[in-house]
């Protein structure tokens, strides 16, 4: 895919994630935000806190990679084996449960609605990073993999990984919100 179309697609996906969080998750009551569909699943806030923890790693890493990336005209975005495998693991269509690293697991954390606001701030930062990525070389290995820092993803791969990971967990948060709809709080339409 041409880099300009690739970035435009990711920007649209991040804008959709932001709108979903603002319109469907932010209005939920504290009880609904913290409700778990099952004892072993995550609540809405746990899903978003997990993403916030990843954003605290990847947003600065992407910013550093973008600062050092050479300028480039529109080009085809390529994917390595590692990039494809990373994406396939987190893409929303992959329904296979994945284990997370202990320090990225928010279970047992004391979470409030501020988690939603932080998530929205991270989305604004990500949109700024994507805007900066429009004119740079996306096929350069530049972003360390969070859980195994000896490996690096190409800049385009890392951007796609981050957005897909967010899509996956926002969908999970929506399922948790839907399960919590019967709890006290304002009515929220979850689609």
UniProtKB/TrEMBL annotation:
<dbReference type="Pfam" id="PF12867">
    <property type="entry name" value="DinB_2"/>
</dbReference>
<feature type="domain" description="DinB-like">
    <location>
        <begin position="23"/>
        <end position="173"/>
    </location>
</feature>
<dbReference type="InterPro" id="IPR034660">
    <property type="entry name" value="DinB/YfiT-like"/>
</dbReference>
<protein>
    <submittedName>
        <fullName>DinB family protein</fullName>
    </submittedName>
</protein>
<dbReference type="InterPro" id="IPR024775">
    <property type="entry name" value="DinB-like"/>
</dbReference>
């Amino acid at each position: 895919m041409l880099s300009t179309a690739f970035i435009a697609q990711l920007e649209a996906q991040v804008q959709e994630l932001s709108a979903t969080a603002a319109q469907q998750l932010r209005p939920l009551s504290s009880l609904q935000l913290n409700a778990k569909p099952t004892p072993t699943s995550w609540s809405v806030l746990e899903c978003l806190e997990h993403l916030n923890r990843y954003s605290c790693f990847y947003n600065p890493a992407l910013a550093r990679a973008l600062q050092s990336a050479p300028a480039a005209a529109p080009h085809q975005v390529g994917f390595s084996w590692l990039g494809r495998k990373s994406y396939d693991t987190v893409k929303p269509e992959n329904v296979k449960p994945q284990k997370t690293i202990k320090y990225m697991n928010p279970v047992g954390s004391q979470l409030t609605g501020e988690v939603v606001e932080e998530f929205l701030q991270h989305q604004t930062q990500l949109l700024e990073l994507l805007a900066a990525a429009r004119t740079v070389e996306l096929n350069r290995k530049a972003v360390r993999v969070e859980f195994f820092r000896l490996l690096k993803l190409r800049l385009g791969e890392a951007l796609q990984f981050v957005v897909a990971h967010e899509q996956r967990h926002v969908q999970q948060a929506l399922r948790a919100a839907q399960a919590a709809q019967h709890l006290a709080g304002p009515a929220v339409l979850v689609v």
